[in-house]
Amino acid sequence: MQKSKKILIAILSIVGIGVIVIGLFFWMLVYESRKDISTKKPYVSFLNTPHIIKDTTTIRWYDTNLRFSHYALVTNEYSHFNEDEVKSVKHYFPGDTVMFHSAKSYYSIHVDNSYYLIGSDTLDSGEVVEFEYNFHGGNPDDLFGN
Protein backbone atom coordinates (compact mmCIF):
# COMPACT_ATOMS: atom_id res chain seq x y z
CA MET A 1 0.00 0.00 0.00
CA GLN A 2 2.80 2.39 0.90
CA LYS A 3 4.64 1.65 -2.36
CA SER A 4 1.56 2.22 -4.57
CA LYS A 5 0.91 5.55 -2.84
CA LYS A 6 4.46 6.73 -3.67
CA ILE A 7 4.05 5.62 -7.30
CA LEU A 8 0.74 7.51 -7.55
CA ILE A 9 2.31 10.66 -6.09
CA ALA A 10 5.23 10.36 -8.54
CA ILE A 11 2.89 9.94 -11.51
CA LEU A 12 0.72 12.89 -10.44
CA SER A 13 3.85 15.04 -9.96
CA ILE A 14 5.12 14.18 -13.45
CA VAL A 15 1.71 14.90 -14.99
CA GLY A 16 1.48 18.20 -13.07
CA ILE A 17 4.93 19.30 -14.20
CA GLY A 18 4.07 18.28 -17.78
CA VAL A 19 0.89 20.35 -17.72
CA ILE A 20 2.82 23.36 -16.43
CA VAL A 21 5.55 23.00 -19.09
CA ILE A 22 3.01 22.58 -21.91
CA GLY A 23 0.99 25.52 -20.57
CA LEU A 24 4.08 27.75 -20.49
CA PHE A 25 4.94 26.69 -24.04
CA PHE A 26 1.48 27.66 -25.34
CA TRP A 27 1.52 30.91 -23.35
CA MET A 28 4.88 31.77 -24.93
CA LEU A 29 3.44 31.14 -28.42
CA VAL A 30 0.48 33.48 -27.95
CA TYR A 31 2.19 36.17 -25.82
CA GLU A 32 2.09 39.67 -27.34
CA SER A 33 3.23 42.97 -25.94
CA ARG A 34 2.38 46.48 -27.14
CA LYS A 35 4.17 49.46 -25.60
CA ASP A 36 4.20 53.21 -26.14
CA ILE A 37 7.82 54.26 -26.76
CA SER A 38 7.11 57.87 -27.74
CA THR A 39 9.42 59.29 -25.08
CA LYS A 40 12.40 57.07 -25.88
CA LYS A 41 15.32 57.85 -28.15
CA PRO A 42 15.52 57.87 -31.14
CA TYR A 43 11.71 57.86 -31.61
CA VAL A 44 11.01 61.06 -29.70
CA SER A 45 13.00 63.03 -32.31
CA PHE A 46 10.76 61.73 -35.15
CA LEU A 47 7.50 62.89 -33.62
CA ASN A 48 5.50 66.07 -34.27
CA THR A 49 7.90 67.07 -37.04
CA PRO A 50 6.88 67.13 -40.70
CA HIS A 51 8.75 64.61 -42.83
CA ILE A 52 8.94 65.27 -46.57
CA ILE A 53 7.93 62.39 -48.83
CA LYS A 54 10.68 61.42 -51.31
CA ASP A 55 8.67 58.99 -53.45
CA THR A 56 5.01 58.24 -54.05
CA THR A 57 3.54 56.70 -50.92
CA THR A 58 0.13 55.20 -50.17
CA ILE A 59 -2.05 54.82 -47.10
CA ARG A 60 -3.76 51.44 -47.31
CA TRP A 61 -6.70 50.07 -45.37
CA TYR A 62 -6.54 46.37 -44.51
CA ASP A 63 -9.51 44.25 -43.45
CA THR A 64 -7.29 42.28 -41.10
CA ASN A 65 -6.07 44.46 -38.28
CA LEU A 66 -2.39 45.23 -38.39
CA ARG A 67 -0.57 45.89 -35.12
CA PHE A 68 -2.14 49.24 -34.13
CA SER A 69 -4.50 50.28 -36.93
CA HIS A 70 -6.35 49.04 -39.99
CA TYR A 71 -4.42 51.69 -41.95
CA ALA A 72 -0.74 51.48 -42.89
CA LEU A 73 1.65 53.85 -44.68
CA VAL A 74 3.36 52.00 -47.54
CA THR A 75 6.38 53.89 -48.89
CA ASN A 76 7.62 53.82 -52.49
CA GLU A 77 4.28 52.64 -53.82
CA TYR A 78 1.44 54.07 -55.85
CA SER A 79 -1.30 51.45 -55.61
CA HIS A 80 -4.98 51.50 -56.44
CA PHE A 81 -6.28 48.49 -54.54
CA ASN A 82 -10.04 48.47 -54.13
CA GLU A 83 -10.76 44.97 -52.92
CA ASP A 84 -12.69 43.65 -49.94
CA GLU A 85 -9.47 42.92 -48.01
CA VAL A 86 -7.29 45.90 -49.01
CA LYS A 87 -7.96 49.41 -50.32
CA SER A 88 -5.64 52.27 -51.25
CA VAL A 89 -7.25 55.26 -49.54
CA LYS A 90 -4.75 58.12 -49.98
CA HIS A 91 -1.62 58.90 -51.97
CA TYR A 92 1.27 61.18 -51.14
CA PHE A 93 3.63 62.54 -53.76
CA PRO A 94 7.21 63.80 -53.57
CA GLY A 95 7.23 67.06 -51.60
CA ASP A 96 4.14 66.21 -49.52
CA THR A 97 4.67 65.90 -45.79
CA VAL A 98 3.61 63.38 -43.21
CA MET A 99 3.75 63.78 -39.44
CA PHE A 100 3.84 61.16 -36.70
CA HIS A 101 2.44 61.78 -33.22
CA SER A 102 3.50 58.63 -31.37
CA ALA A 103 5.78 55.60 -31.51
CA LYS A 104 4.92 52.09 -30.37
CA SER A 105 6.64 48.74 -30.13
CA TYR A 106 5.17 45.30 -30.68
CA TYR A 107 6.64 42.01 -29.51
CA SER A 108 5.64 38.41 -30.05
CA ILE A 109 7.61 35.21 -30.36
CA HIS A 110 6.68 35.08 -34.08
CA VAL A 111 7.91 38.54 -35.10
CA ASP A 112 10.30 39.45 -32.28
CA ASN A 113 10.41 43.25 -31.73
CA SER A 114 9.02 45.62 -34.33
CA TYR A 115 8.63 49.39 -34.12
CA TYR A 116 5.91 51.65 -35.49
CA LEU A 117 5.46 55.35 -35.96
CA ILE A 118 1.80 56.37 -35.67
CA GLY A 119 0.39 59.27 -37.65
CA SER A 120 -3.01 60.61 -38.59
CA ASP A 121 -4.43 62.29 -41.65
CA THR A 122 -7.75 63.24 -43.21
CA LEU A 123 -8.96 61.24 -46.20
CA ASP A 124 -10.76 62.85 -49.14
CA SER A 125 -14.03 61.63 -47.58
CA GLY A 126 -13.32 63.81 -44.51
CA GLU A 127 -12.65 60.80 -42.27
CA VAL A 128 -9.67 61.24 -39.95
CA VAL A 129 -7.65 58.03 -39.74
CA GLU A 130 -4.67 56.88 -37.72
CA PHE A 131 -2.10 54.92 -39.67
CA GLU A 132 0.96 52.96 -38.70
CA TYR A 133 4.34 52.95 -40.36
CA ASN A 134 6.55 49.94 -39.69
CA PHE A 135 9.83 51.61 -38.82
CA HIS A 136 13.02 49.57 -38.98
CA GLY A 137 15.34 52.05 -37.30
CA GLY A 138 17.79 54.53 -38.65
CA ASN A 139 16.73 58.01 -39.57
CA PRO A 140 13.29 58.77 -41.06
CA ASP A 141 14.98 61.49 -43.12
CA ASP A 142 16.46 58.64 -45.16
CA LEU A 143 12.93 57.49 -45.94
CA PHE A 144 11.13 60.79 -46.24
CA GLY A 145 13.85 63.23 -47.30
CA ASN A 146 13.97 66.05 -44.74
Features:
2 helices, alpha+beta, 146 residues, two-stranded antiparallel sheet, 7-stranded mixed sheet
Write structural notes for this entry.
The protein has 146 residues and is α+β, with helices and mostly antiparallel strands. Helix content is 23%, strand content 37%. The protein is built from two helices and nine strands; from the N terminus they run αβββββββββα. It has a seven-stranded mixed beta sheet with strand order 1-7-8-9-4-3-5. A two-stranded antiparallel sheet has the order 2-6. A hairpin with a 5-residue loop joins strand 8 and strand 9. The radius of gyration is 23 Å and the shape is elongated. The model has no long low-confidence stretch (mean pLDDT 86).
Summarize the structure.
With 146 residues, the protein is an alpha+beta fold. It contains 2 helices and 9 strands.
Read across the widest sheet, the strand sequence of neighbours is: 1-7-8-9-4-3-5
Q: What percentage of residues falls in helices of 4 or more residues?
A: 10-25%
Distance between the termini: 81 Å
Number of DSSP-assigned strands: 9
Overall morphology: elongated
Rg from alpha-carbon coordinates? 23 Å
* Range of strand content: 35-45%
Oligomer: single chain
Supply the number of helical segments: 2
- Main beta sheet strand tally, sense and closure: 7 strands, mixed
Low-confidence stretches: none
Q: Which structural class best describes the helix and strand composition?
A: alpha+beta
Mean pLDDT across the residues is 86
Elements, N to C (H/E): HEEEEEEEEEH
